[in-house]
Amino acid sequence: MLNNIPVEFRKFNRHRSYLKKILRDTNCAIEDIKNGQVLDEIKQQLTFCTVETLHKVLDNTPAFVVLGQTCFGKALFVNFLLNYKLLPQKLKSNWRWVKISYGIRKSLRLTLGSEYEIVDSLKSLQQPWTGIAEDDLKRDNSESPTDHCPTIEVEIPAEILKENINIYIPPDCGSDELQKVLSKQLDSIYPIFIYAVTENALTESDIHNIRVLKQLYSDAAIIFLRIGLLDNKDPVGLNKIMIDLKTQLSRLGFLPDYPQTPDLSIRKALCSECMVENEVISYIQIKDHLHLFVRNVLKAYLLKLSALLSELHNVCLRIFILSAFDMAREIQITPRRIHYAQDVEQKLFKSLMDIALIRQTEMVKIIQDSLEQMRNNIDVVLDGYEYQENEIKFEKVATMEIHHLVFQKLTNIVASRLVHSVGYLRESYTGTLQRCLESLEKNCHELEGSLLASDAVKQIVNAAYNIDLKSFATFSLVQSFVDRLRKLVQNFPFKWHTCSQKVRFDREWQRQVILELLDSLSYHRLAKTISSQFQEHVKSSHEAFHSAMRLIENQLSGQLEETEEQRIDIRKRLAPKFARLALESTSLCDLIRWGMPRQIVEIGRGQYGVVFACEPWGGVQPCAVKSVVPPDERHWNDLAMEFYYTRTIPEHPRIVKLRGSVIDHNYGNGCLSAVLLVMERMKRDLFCALKDGLTFIRRIQIAIDVVEGIRYLHSQGLVHRDVKLKNVLLDGNERAMLTDFGFCIPEAMMSGSVVGTPVHMAPELLSGRYDSSVDVYAFGVLFWFLCAGRVELPGHFEHFMSKEQLWNSVKKGMRPECLPNFDTECWNLMEQCWAAEPCERPLLGDVQPQLEDILNRATKK
User: Does 3.40.50 match the CATH number of domain 61-287?
Assistant: First the structure.
C-alpha cells in the first residue's frame, strides 16, 4: 500500500497544475472587466479569496514532516518509509535539520538554508556510504536550532520519493523554540505531519509541542504513530498501549469524536468529504492506513482551494447576471419613467390652467364674499393697523397704508380659498411624480447649475398654493409708492414737519377710507388679474420643466446606450467566460471529492453527447451520466451557462437535479474533452412513455407536473425555451420532471437568439423579442401530444419539408388540429396557450387549476 503514495502525489500534482491554470485564467478574466460598478463588486468578493493568495498557497509543496518523542522513533519510521536504512536508530537526541528528497544518485551535503553549502568533512562521505553517520547528524553545542542551524540534505533514489516527495525532520528543540524552528523552514511547505510515539504515553513536553503545532497549523492533521521494535512480538501489550494512548489523546482534544476503527470501508465513509482528522495507528497498521491518510490530506488541501475558487467564480457569475438584470430593467424602465413624468406633469399643468380659466366665476364670488365680509367687520380689518395719535402724516400716505392693509387681508382670504381648490392636486400628482423625477435626476451628473425638473414641479404647485395679491402689478405699485413716500417724508427737515399741516387720522376716518376703497374695487377685474398672474406663473414653470426634461433625456439616452453595450458585453463575453471557469473549478471539486464516474451502459444519445448508466457516484444511486462534447467555444460557453443555471436551481420535485460534473480531458482515447453531467437516473422520457401507452388520467397528471416545473423555473427568473416530450422525464411512479436546460436562461440574459424545437416554438421566437410566455406556448403544443396520446406530429405539420416552411405557417396562424377524442375544455386550454399574441396566453398559475379540474372529473368517471 505504501507504493500507492507516489500515485496520490502524482494525482495531486496533476490537479494542482490544472488548478493553477484556472487561477491564471481567472486573473486574466478579472483584468478584462471594464465596467466600473461590476468590477467594484467583483473586487469586494476578492477580499476573502484573492487570486494572488491562492497562487501563493498553491505553490506550497506537500511534504512529510516527521516529529516524535525520540530520534529513534523518527529514524525507524523514515527507514521504513524509504525501505532503506538511511538514519541511524541508536542516536537519541540533538539532531540537525534533515531534508530527504529524490535523486538519481545518492548524495549528501551540509547547507545553510538550502543556499550555502558548508565545506565540511562529513564522515558519511569518507567511504562508500549506506546511511548517514551519527556524527554528521549531531548538532554541535554552538549550533542553535533556531538560528543558523545547518541542514543535512540527502538525495536518494527511493521509489516513494519519485513524485517530488520530500521528507523533513526538524531538529530537536524545546517547546519555546519549536514555533520559530518550523516557521523558518516550512513557510513554503504544505506539511503531512507524522508524530512518532515510542513511549507508553505522551509527556507534558510532548503535549505542549503538539499544541504549538496545532496552533501554527490549525487545519493540518497529525497521524500519531506508535512505533517500537518489540510491537510485533507483543500484540497484547501493544493493544493496551494503543488504548491508553487514544484515551489520553481524546481527553486532550487531539482526536475526533468518532471512534478509531481498523475497518477501512468505515474510515473511507468517514473521510468521504475529506474532513481529515488526527489519527492514531500502530506500527503494524502503517501499510494500510498511511496511504489513506496521505490521500485524504492531499484531497483536503486541493478541495479547499478549488472550493474557494469555485465559490469565487459562482459569486462573480451571480453578480454578472444580477447586473445584467439591473441593466435590462434600467434600459426598459427609464424611457417609461420619462414618459410617465411628462404625462403626469402635463395633466397637472392642464388641471391648474383649468382652475385659472374655468373657475373665474367662482373667483369673482370668492372676492365678492371676501369684500362683503370685510365691509361688515371693518374693526377686524383694522386689528393689524397701529394708530398713533401724535404721528404726523400726509393724508395721501395714511390712505395708502390703509389700502395696503385691506389688500393684505383680502390676500389671506382669497389665498386660503384657492389653496383649498388646488390642494388635492398636490396629493394626486406630486407624490409618485416627485419620486420618479428624483430617481431620474440621481442618474444624471451634469445637471448642476440648471433648474431641476423636480424643482419646476414644485414651482407649478406652489403657483397655486401660495397665491399672494401683493405680488400682482396693481397692488405692488401701491405698496412701492407708499414705501417711497414714507422715506421721502422721513428725509424732510424737522422744521418742514413742524410747518406742515397736522391731520388726525382717527378710527372714523380709517373706516371711511376702507369703505371708499371697498366700493371702488371691481370683482371681475380682481379675478381677471389673479387668473392672469396665476396662468403666467404656471406656464413659466411648465416651460422650465420641459427644458429640464430635455436635459435629462439627452444625458440619459447616452447613458442607456453605454448600459446596453455593457449588458451585451456581460451576456456575450464576461458571463460565459466566468461560467466556463465556474464549470472547470466546480467540476474539479467533484473530481477530487468523488473521482471519475464509472460508466456501465449507454441508455440514450443526443446531438452533442451520450447518456450512460453509471455506478453509484457522490451518494447518487441510481445515477446517469450525460457526456457532452462541445464542438467549439460557443457550445462550451452555452454548456457552461446551462451547467450554472442547472446547478444553482434549488431542489424541486418537478426538476431533475444536477448532482455533479466532471471534465474528462481524456475522452475518446485522449482526443477530446467531455463534460460529464451526473444526475439521478429516471425511468424513461415522455416520448417513450407515450409510445408505450399511458392512461388519460396519468397523462393529465404529467401535464400538471410539467406546469409545476415550468412555474418553478419562472419563479427563479429562468425561461426553459425547449419544453418538449424528450425533455420531460418520468420516475418510477410515472411522475414528470423537467430536464435538459441547454437553452434555459434568465430573461435579463436573453439575446433574442432563435432556439428550441421547431414544432414547439412560439411565433415571436423568430422575431428575437420574447419573454417567458414562450414556455406557455410550448406547453400548449406538448399538451396536444398528451391529449392525443401519441408521438406522431400533428397532421398540419407532417407535410413540411423544412423548418422554415413550418415557421412561416405558424406565423400565419397554423396550429395543430383538433382530434375527435379531445375534450372541449382541453382543446380550449391548448388554444389559449398557443395564442399568437403573448399577452393573450394564460398565466400558468391559471392553467394549473384548470388541469386539476380536468383530472378530478376524469378520476370520478
Answer: yes
Please state, in angstroms and rounded to a whole number, the distance separating the CA atoms of residues 347 and 341.
10
Pairing of strands 116-117, 107-112: antiparallel
Closest CA to 289 of 65, 4, 63, 79: 4
pLDDT (0 to 100) of residue 438: 82
Closest CA to 791 of 687, 676, 719, 721: 687
CA 183 to chain centre: 38
Mean pLDDT of the chain: 81
CATH number of the structural domain 684-861: 1.10.510.10
* Residue found by looking up cell 416554438 in the block: 761
Residues 374 and 365: their CA atoms lie apart, in Å, by: 14
Report the topology of domain 596-681. Phosphorylase Kinase; domain 1 (3.30.200)
Catalytic residues: 722
**91-105, 461-475, 805-819 — which is least confidently predicted?**
461-475
Only one residue has cell 418742514, namely 496
List helix spans (H) across 492-625. Answer: 494-499, 507-520, 523-569, 575-594
Respond yes or no on whether the N-terminal peptide bond of residue 622 is cis (omega within 30° of 0). Answer: yes
Phi, psi of 545 (to 5 degrees): -60, -50
pTM over 0.85? The answer is: no
Other CB atoms within a 10 A radius of the CB of residue 66 amount to 25
Q: What is the DSSP letter of 4?
A: G
Q: Locate cell 420531460: which residue?
A: 728
DSSP 382-422: GGG----TT----HHHHHHHHHHHHHHHHHHHHHHHHHHHH
Nearest to 505 by CA among 383, 413, 398, 355: 398
Q: Which helix (H) or strand (E) holds 811?
A: helix 803-811
Spell out the residues 6+ positions from residue 635 whose beta carbon is closer than 8 angstroms to its own.
608
Per-residue pLDDT at 126 exceeds 70: yes
Q: Domain coordinates of the chain in residue numbers?
A: 61-287, 596-681, 684-861
